[in-house]
Amino acid sequence: MATIVKKCCCFEVPEDLVESVIFKCTSPDCCCGCCAPRYKRLVDSVFPRNPQDGLVKSNMEKLTFYVLSSPEKLDRVGEYLYQKVSRDIYRKRNGFTVIGVECMDQLLQACHSQTLNLFVESFLKMVQKLLESPDPNLQILATKSFVKFANIEEDTPSYHRRYDFFVSKFASMCHNNSSNDEFRNEIRKAGIQGLKSVVRKTVSDELVENIWETSHMEKIIPSLLFNMEHGRKTLVKDENDGVTEAQDEIDAPKLAENCMRDLVNKATFGHVRSIVKPVLHHFDAFELWVPNDFAVHTFRVIMFSIQSQYSYAVIETLMNHLEQHTHSSNAKIRTSMADVLAKIIDIAAGESVGPSVLEIVNAIVQHIQVSTKLDRVDGDEKSYRETLISALGEYVTHLPDYQKIEIMKFIMQKVPSRSDNCQSHRLLQNMLLKSLLMVGSKYRTTYLSTTFPIAFLQPLLTLSQDDDPEVRLLVQNILHTLIDRRQNREKLFTPTLKLENINREPSTRTDILFVKKNGAEIFSNMIASLEKNNNELRNMNAIYTTVALFTVELFCEDTLFDFVRLVLSFQDLAITSTVLSPAQKIHLHVIALCLFVLIAYCLPVLKEYSDKVIKARRDQAIHLMPPLKTRYEVYEPSQNIPDAALLSQDAIYTLLKQEGFEPTTVKSAAYTFPRHSWVDAHMQSSSTTDLNSISLEVDSGSSTPDGTKQKPNQTDMELTVESLKKILNEPSENRKAVESEKRKNLNESFKTAAFEDLVSKAAAKGGNLQNKLSEIFSKVAVSGTVESPSRTNNNHTSNHVGNKVRFPNIYEL
Amino acid sequence: MEDYRFLFKVVLVGNAGVGKTCLVRRFTQGLFPPGQGATIGVDFMIKTVDINGEKVKLQIWDTAGQERFRSITQSYYRSAHALILVYDVSSQPSFDCLPDWLREIEEYANAKVLRVLVGNKTDREDREIPTYVGEDFAQRNNMYFMETSAKEADNVEKLFMEIAHALIEQAKAREPVPEYKGNPGQSVTLNHRTPSTTSESCCSRLL
């Protein structure tokens, strides 16, 4: 160093020497300007005599050249400049302050990053000094300078820089409340820019401040939001006042929004929460949830800016927040939050993968669950749930189909079983089915077998037997949306004879397999649901639609007899049922006819016959024509229906035979589907034994001993192989007649007899049966026989403890 | 003029309208602005004071009392060296909220923060909180106590000076700085080469 000789103004001297002599002489009061070191003189020369003249450009160049050629001096130059500036600030000589800052800026720009490190310290001290000044002009000047600094890419690490003052101060500037509008605006803008710069400076540099710390985020985020929101208000106001002024006003909020985007964009997974939490707190504190335009806007900004793989973390955080609000705040706020969720969730859906999907669905379902448990049943709570469901729908829409099935299965699992009868469970059941319907409506079925995996179909069908007509209707609606592959739903909404433009395609092999596998179960469930005596008109319509859609989708030569049998058993049910009201029986007749017409539409051979039946009905039994009505003038329809107006199994089978269609099973009559006596009506709904028997019949075409499992309870006959044989061999009509006679008697007796009589009678009979059964159990362990009575017991212990016999369904209601 | 030995952050909290901003204004600028509007977010002022010849720079953060700004103001507690909890002696509600404020402070501020209770507006005729009640409350909660009037400039200077004093004591107790002992009046120019990081790091030790 000592060898370097520099030219001074008056004499030549090794620079270090001079420096060592007047090393400490940095006092502003130093009398002797000429003995100051060269760098000081250079700095001094930059300032003009009169501040209005501005920076002395030529001297500035000299100074720049000087620090570039001897970068080791830069630190001292910085320190000296800092002192000069702070002196000027103190003496309120703003003109010189501005020049000092400008000089500092230029040096910063000119110098290479490697040498900047200490200089930056002085620079930042200067900026801080300016920011500490109460003069808004200086604060703005400081911010501008700081922004310039932030734009410089430093490649040397800086270990000991602290930005917490800057964050605090800039955040405070964002909230400036000066009475002077212009200043207020400028300072707020400066504050936002400052924050933006701090973020830019720190985000990429791990060694400096961790900007994601809560103490910083809690300052930055509310400041940005405050400005974003404030701008929206003034924007609205200004639109009325005139556009010219609005131009300036928009700036601050726009700036804040951009800053927000920047910040969110830089966030990684761990930071998402530290961003979203202050946002949520801000909305809570400022009550910005209702109305939620701004919340929606903000979250959209976040969702669109965030790196897409993290977007679900935002959703998760929002959902957690919703949870915190569950008990504290009113439903309106929660509805608004859920609405925000609904509006942004689709953005996340595209990126969600794996477990996160189910997590989100689970969270939504849980919110619904929690909401149903609350005692409040006002409209707000209801709309909250609806919003949640629509959020679910929005989310699911954007998921791939295979995930939708998973989700449907998942929701299905959550639906409470029907054994729970309390209000909240009902509500939850209802809500979850609605969610299911929502998901289902977003799903496009290609293969029915993929749409209805057994784990989903089974519980769904079980629910189709629920006691609540509302639930049954929902289940039917879910079936509609899932079965309807070709948009026929609207056309088949109610039973109709006019079939036009039904979209059909030939059934595929998988379709047929589906019918073979699940058809029997589905159909027997349809029949069972038709037999519910609290069915309303819309339930009837809905079941018609379901079966009709199945027909359209799956009808072919292979499945022909399944459908014909089904239709016939509908009619059969109408004639034999003792539970249904006359109007419901008429409905069944109408549905049977309409379905037959649909079959005839698919298989024109039957057209002629169907026309014949229609004509007969028109002439003789007009009340058996669609549409369905709630009230009929004719009662006891089964008594006076002329045969011609009914579908005749023989006629149909003959026709089909002529065309070369042979029924696949021997005992393929309408009663393939079990008739229910009062005892097994209940068991039917969920009994797997029945279903086995049916599928066996369909599959093997021969009646097997399994087919008898359903029957032990039907009569009080002795349960021997002989008696069973007898049942099988007897012509069905005989048995039916006997049965219906019996049923009538039973009905009669229950209606008229005294309660005590009934109890004693039932007790006696029950004991009988009980003995018999235990006898059988001890002899053979037949799974089927074990199952049915035990189920009966389970279902009906409430009225008579210790008495294993139950009253028929009709008396329960 | 320039260098300071200590830098302390002082944060004022308390209900809206108890006179926090006026206290700060009175202290930093010597004025009492009538019709001062509600503070939004956080306001910032700085004042350097001389305590026994030592320059102490006070960074004063004046927070908004309104509930809705609570989340941003809380973030300022954390780094504070002293918290001034202000109530209005003529307003019982502002006094009743003190326990809530204390809870906030417990939750968000540094455990070793210096806490000062200030009853402001002693110039008011309609006083509702007698001095001893405030004093009692302060004692129970281990706080310094003072009654002030920003309007009359009563005790305002004293308040901040005492805080500065206490903070210095605290700082010195925690980290004695030998080279300054016995010579508090040392001139600034001589200190110059001691990089100002000393004073900064001294403060950061307080954190």
Automatic annotation (TrEMBL), chain A:
Signal sequence bounds: none
Pfam name, any one: EFR3_ARM
InterPro entries: ARM-like, ARM-type_fold, EFR3-like_ARM, EFR3_Homologs
Top-rank taxon: Eukaryota
Region (Disordered): 695-716, 786-813
Comp. bias (Polar residues): 786-801
Family of the protein in this entry: Belongs to the EFR3 family.
Designated name of the protein: Protein EFR3 cmp44E
Organism of this sequence: Orchesella dallaii
UniProtKB/TrEMBL annotation, chain B:
Polar residues composition-biased segments: 184-207
Alphabetically ordered keywords of this record: GTP-binding, Nucleotide-binding
SUPFAM superfamilies linked: P-loop containing nucleoside triphosphate hydrolases
Pfam families attached to this UniProt entry: Ras (PF00071)
Gene3D superfamilies in alphabetical order: P-loop containing nucleotide triphosphate hydrolases (3.40.50.300)
Region annotation Disordered: where it falls in the sequence: 175-207
Domain of life the protein comes from: Eukaryota
NCBIfam families: small_GTP (TIGR00231)
Record-given protein name: Ras-related protein Rab-30
Organism: Orchesella dallaii
